[in-house]
């Protein structure tokens, strides 16, 4: 269902805001990919007040749209409406930066509005023979004793493992200007001492 954008009432009590450069990216996204609005319509109550999509509405107005798709949620209680406003703005997941770095185009991601890690800015500032200041991944040579702990890709166990061990980005080779991004990856090998420190960071080791 599409409606005259002027009939939609912004929700002044929605605590989610997007400002500055992020808002400009949102406006640009609306201008370049308006079909996205059909897939994620603005959610309104029976009085045409926004429940979900307050910033999208603002961006649509800024982009000069006359009509926008809406979804009317007229069967919610006031308590459910308040709950929806908050839950609609919660990001429960996190990005797999290892996958993003190797399987997606960074320029596309940034133009779509994704906030990339600061590593991208560091790369642009590198001198010709300078290497980026990322920790070197632990090497298995010379021969080391080790165990391997595995989890399925994108599984709950893998997310727990990354969070518990606080896995960060490391370089697996020299990183100089002009190098491909796939020499930077999520760390997958850590020393036993480092493992214990991360595991027991919030509690006393036993």
How is this structure best described in words?
The protein has 206 residues and is α+β, with helices and mostly antiparallel strands. The protein has 2 domains: 2-87, Conserved hypothetical protein from pyrococcus furiosus pfu- 392566-001, ParB domain, CATH 3.90.1530; 97-199, no CATH class. The protein has 9 helices and 6 strands, in the order βααββαβαααααββα. The chain has helices spanning 20-32, 36-39, 54-63, 78-87, 97-103, 106-111, 119-124, 156-165, 192-199; strands at residues 2-4, 42-44, 50-52, 67-72, 169-171, 184-186. Strands 1-4-2-3 form a 4-stranded mixed β-sheet. Strands 5-6 form a two-stranded antiparallel ribbon. β2 (42-44) and β3 form a beta hairpin. α1 crosses α3. The radius of gyration is 23 Å and the shape is elongated. The relative contact order is 0.11.
> What is the first-to-last residue Cα distance?
60 Å
What's the domain count?
2
The pLDDT mean sits at: 80
Low-confidence stretches: 174-182
């Amino acid at each position: 269902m599409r409606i005259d954008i002027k009939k939609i009432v912004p929700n002044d009590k929605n605590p989610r805001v997007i400002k500055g450069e992020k808002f400009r990216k949102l406006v640009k996204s609306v201008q370049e990919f308006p079909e996205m609005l059909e897939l994620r319509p603005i959610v309104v109550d029976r009085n045409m007040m926004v429940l979900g999509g307050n910033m999208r509405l603002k961006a649509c107005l800024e982009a000069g749209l006359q009509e926008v798709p809406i979804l009317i949620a007229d069967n919610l209680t006031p308590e459910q409406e308040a709950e929806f406003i908050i839950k609609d703005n919660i990001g429960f997941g996190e990005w797999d930066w290892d996958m993003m770095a190797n399987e997606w185009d960074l320029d596309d991601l940034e133009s779509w509005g994704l906030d990339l890690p600061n590593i991208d800015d560091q790369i642009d500032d590198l001198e010709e023979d300078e290497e980026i200041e990322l920790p070197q991944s632990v090497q298995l040579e010379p021969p080391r004793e080790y165990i391997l702990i595995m989890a399925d890709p994108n599984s709950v166990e893998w997310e727990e493992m990354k969070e518990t061990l606080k896995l960060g980005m490391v370089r697996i080779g020299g990183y100089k200007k002009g190098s491909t991004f796939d020499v930077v990856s999520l760390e997958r090998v850590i020393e036993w001492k480092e493992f214990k420190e991360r595991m027991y960071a919030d509690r006393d080791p036993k």
